[in-house]
């Protein structure tokens, strides 16, 4: 038999009620002055634009970066494609960009509903790209595989960086509860902008070149975005300590 004393519910309620009461020597005017000082510092916050508008803005930024890069370097890649290659490549890029942009917007809005888990975005994008590229490009040659590949990788990243910065600026009024995941999504979207530029410009249609080096722009850009988010999280933690 358990002889330990038990606390009744009424006793718990009485204890909590006494703890919540203000002490007798508390001056109510102090509470009023605190409330007045807080109220004077409050300012109305302009609500964020709707999700569809921010998503459209991000996709438009990426498209403009890709087109600007190809306009500067030449539209040699798309000129060499047939109608099926053009339709499949750029419709896939557009769909994936919309998906990544929507995921990023939701991550920058606290308490927003995530239709796609942040960890699933990058694998989904890579698998879709590899499937489309493997279906379309069958040239088995590997001429200048490393030198030409590194050049395309660096070129894609060169255009992914401004796309990521402009996208972050567009969402500057949002707040990322999980900055690493948000950075990963932002880097994925920016990588698609760099990849789009390569598909417009690069006329090297060797399958290994496109499957490895063109696709690599997306995960490398995503990793850079995640590193930026990690650095921002560390900075925020050090600021609070």
Description:
The protein has 241 residues and is an all-alpha fold. It has one domain (54-240). It contains nine helices and no strands. It has helices at 9-20, 28-41, 51-73, 76-80, 83-107, 118-136, 145-170, 179-201, 207-240. α5 (83-107) runs antiparallel to α8.
Q: List low-pLDDT spans.
A: none
Number of domains: 1
Structural class: mainly alpha
Name the shape in a single word: elongated
Q: Average pLDDT across residues?
A: 87
CA-CA gap between termini: 50 Å
Helix content: over 70%
Binned strand content: under 5%
Q: How does the major sheet shape up? A: none
- Helix and strand element order: HHHHHHHHH
Question: What's the helix count?
Answer: 9
How many strands?
0
Over all CA atoms, what is the radius of gyration? 26 Å
């Amino acid at each position: 038999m358990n002889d330990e004393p038990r606390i009744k519910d009424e006793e718990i309620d009485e204890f909590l009620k006494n703890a919540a009461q203000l002490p007798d020597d508390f001056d109510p005017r102090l509470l009023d002055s605190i409330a007045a000082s807080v109220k004077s510092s409050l300012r109305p916050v302009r609500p964020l634009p709707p999700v569809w508008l921010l998503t459209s803005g991000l996709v438009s930024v990426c498209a403009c970066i890709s087109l600007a890069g190809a306009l500067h370097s030449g539209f040699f890649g798309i000129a060499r494609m047939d109608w099926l290659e053009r339709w499949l490549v750029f419709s896939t890029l557009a769909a994936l960009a919309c998906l990544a942009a929507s995921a990023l917007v939701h991550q920058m809005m606290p308490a927003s509903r995530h239709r796609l888990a942040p960890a699933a975005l990058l694998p989904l994008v890579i698998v879709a790209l590899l499937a489309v590229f493997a279906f379309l490009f069958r040239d088995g040659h590997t001429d200048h595989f490393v030198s030409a590949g590194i050049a395309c990788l660096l070129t894609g990243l060169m255009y992914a960086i401004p796309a990521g910065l402009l996208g972050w600026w567009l969402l500057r009024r949002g707040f990322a509860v999980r900055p690493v995941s948000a950075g990963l999504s932002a880097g994925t979207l920016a990588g698609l902008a760099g990849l789009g530029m390569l598909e417009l410009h690069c006329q090297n249609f060797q399958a290994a070149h496109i499957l490895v080096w063109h696709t690599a722009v997306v995960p490398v850009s995503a990793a850079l975005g995640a590193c930026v988010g990690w650095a921002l999280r560390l900075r925020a933690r050090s600021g609070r300590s």
